[in-house]
Design a protein that fits this description.
This protein has 2 helices and 3 strands. The chain is of the alpha+beta class.
Length: 106
């Protein structure tokens, strides 16, 4: 059964009443006796329980990590394709020695 909030517009008396949905609304204020007792518009307070609801099934799951796009040189080769040959990184000394040896040949 829902709980309804009532308020008297004459004496400002407030009261929460447990009523069936089919019960008629109260109109007489229990404090002052005036016929100005009316239901208040309030937010519904309820909680969804059991399997299939956000609070039980999805709330505590960790979010999947976003995968960064693969770099073109780090991409895996397709089956049957030859893997590209990687050259070892050249040091500055090796590069200058190769350049000087080419200059001596010319």
């Amino acid at each position: 059964m829902p709980i309804y909030a009532y308020k008297c517009s004459s004496c400002q008396h407030e009261r929460d009443v447990l009523q069936k949905v089919s019960d008629p609304a109260l109109t007489v204020c229990p404090q002052c006796g005036a016929a100005t007792f009316a239901k208040q518009l309030t937010a519904a307070g309820f909680q969804l329980k059991g399997s299939g609801w956000y609070a039980t099934d999805f709330k505590n799951r960790p979010a999947p990590e976003a995968k960064a796009p693969a770099k073109p040189d780090e991409a895996k080769p397709e089956k049957g394709a030859a893997a590209p040959a990687k050259e070892p990184p050249a040091s500055k000394e090796a590069a200058s020695a190769t350049a000087s040896s080419r200059a001596a040949v010319d």
